[in-house]
Amino acid sequence: PGGAAAAPLPEEDCMKLNPSFVGIALSSLLAIDLWASKRLGVCAGEGSAWGSARPLMKVIEVSGHGIPWLLGTFYGLCQSDSSAAREGLLNLLFALVLDLVMVAVVKGLVKRPRPTHNKMDMFVTISVDKYSFPSGHATRAALVCRFVLRHLVLAVPLRVLVVLWALIVSISRVMLGRHNMTDVLFGLLLGYALYGVVEHCWLSPATAPALFALW
């Protein structure tokens, strides 16, 4: 009958017709992230706008890679004859391993693909490196930056250089097309937080005598 009320729409149809504000906001942010990241990927290939700077960006990429940091820290730990230096290097090694594990876990859970404009010529990759979120380089840069500033006595110019290195490594991830901006931003936040975990679990001769007995 004309006066009868229309049958209510199924719940799933209502959701499609009336998407939540949060859903719209997240979709919009994702679209902006992808668009801006592609625009900023000016070194993603040799033919890109800043393609001539790509070799320099790849050197910066290596400077933030986990393998050089792990090998360098382990070598320093083996060569050090100072108990204070060994304690610092052992905790830096712990921080780097924690960083690798946490980034691998998050990448495996989120499984966000790399940007479509990324050229897969990265320096030494493993299986989870096909995923993009979060940026391991950004996580490591923030973690190492906090560690160095906290535990090394450096002149102000050197402290500024450490911070600049962390920022340049992070920015280079987007410029090379390796990551979207949100991958890098989350990576920086994760690295900052992981340093707090390292400080809370600080390894010393009193808390981990077996580890220090190895050196």
UniProtKB/TrEMBL annotation:
CDD domains: PAP2_containing_2_like (cd03391). Pfam families: PAP2. It is found in: Endoplasmic reticulum membrane; Nucleus inner membrane. It catalyses: (2E)-geranyl phosphate + H2O = (2E)-geraniol + phosphate; presqualene phosphate + H2O = presqualene alcohol + phosphate; (2E,6E)-farnesyl phosphate + H2O = (2E,6E)-farnesol + phosphate; (2E,6E)-farnesyl diphosphate + H2O = (2E,6E)-farnesyl phosphate + phosphate + H(+). The keyword Transmembrane helix applies. It is a multi-pass membrane protein. GO terms for biological process: lipid metabolic process. This is Polyisoprenoid diphosphate/phosphate phosphohydrolase PLPP6. Residues 87-199 form the Phosphatidic acid phosphatase type 2/haloperoxidase domain. Keywords: Endoplasmic reticulum, Hydrolase, Lipid metabolism, Membrane, Nucleus, Transmembrane, Transmembrane helix. The keyword Ion transport does not apply. Its EC number is 3.6.1.68. One of its GO terms (cellular component) is endoplasmic reticulum membrane.
